[in-house]
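**Protein record**
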Amino acid sequence: MSSTIELPSLLSFERKLENSDGLMFSGNWDNIKQDVSWEPISIIPRFNRSTQSAHGISDENKIKPNPVSASNDDANLPLEHDTLKLSFSLRVIGNLGVPFACNVPDFEQAIVEKVNEFKQTDMLDELAKRYATNIANGRFLWRNRVGAEQVRIIVNVDGQDSVLEFNAYDYGLNDFNDSDEQLTILTNIIKQGLADEQGFCFMHIDAYVKLGAGQHVFPSQEMNMGEKRKSLFKIKDQAAMHNVKIGNALRTVDTWYEQDAKFPIAAEPYGAVTQRGQAYRPSGNDLYTLMINWVNDEISPEEQAYVVSNLIRGGVFSKVSKDSKE
């Protein structure tokens, strides 16, 4: 009887969906297909006076101005513009399933064989469709998508003559059941990029969001530990969204974490969703357990897709030694 293959103490995978930061521009909806310049959106400071509203404030401090809200970054469309444009690029990289680093040859051989078998099944098509849907529905816009009058996504793929266009509201956020010709084309492009052993595909994505003249837009917020002031992400003074935030939306494909999942979550080793304060994949249903089960035996097609979505996510998945401190 062969011995059980263990999780390596050195194991990592390269990210296979490599997206850029997203730059924010302003313009008008009627000019989407016109040869006109779109203006960069600036980050501006706001100096406000606001009341105390946190629970537990003493009576003597309730009337004092709130110092947290005194000075914050803000971003808006100009009064003469009604539409936000968010632009970023995406590379879909092949050689899926091959570790970047692994110090257990038996594990590397096993995971490569399993993923190569997976790439011949319909579940790779399903994964590619989920990534394509998250582009088509504009999930990566986050708050900028909420309450918009119209949202259009335009995808230009290197080497493709035709331009793909999507009305974001035609595609749901809570499932991946939508299907049409444009989505099928984008799905096949992403699948080909992932399945390729050496190559990649490259695309440029522009999202147009009709919000209304002068409306707020929402760049990424910087994590300023220990500081009270809200700082928004910018690149050369232009409002922008972090590549990590866009990438998190693109890999929100996991509906296999429970039988009756009501919404998809991002592919994560423990299914952690920080804004909800919950990890949806407890021990036994986590990446590491399923990955070890897969290289030693078989797991369900849905569990395989979850494992592969984490390999596409990339990261360090090494086994922590028992004497390591928590």
About this structure: The helical segments are 105-118, 122-136, 181-195, 243-250, 287-296, 301-313.
